[in-house]
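Bench notes, afternoon.
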Amino acid sequence: MPDWSPWHPRAARLRVHQTSCCGEYELAAEGGQYFVLRQAEGGSYVETARGAYAHAAQTYVDLTAQHRCRRRAS
């Protein structure tokens, strides 16, 4: 399970490269670093796996592969 920490913008522009099926996770980049972003309770955002693309992308793939889509019926 990844460690999540509060997201604080570190650059003028945030770029979202990929979003999971229901928007639970986003593979994003800012200032030359990649990370996985998700919305926390209260509307704030948290991040994990900040760093090189390969690390962040693999974390994103792992998270999206194991999550349950909120749009699908249970």
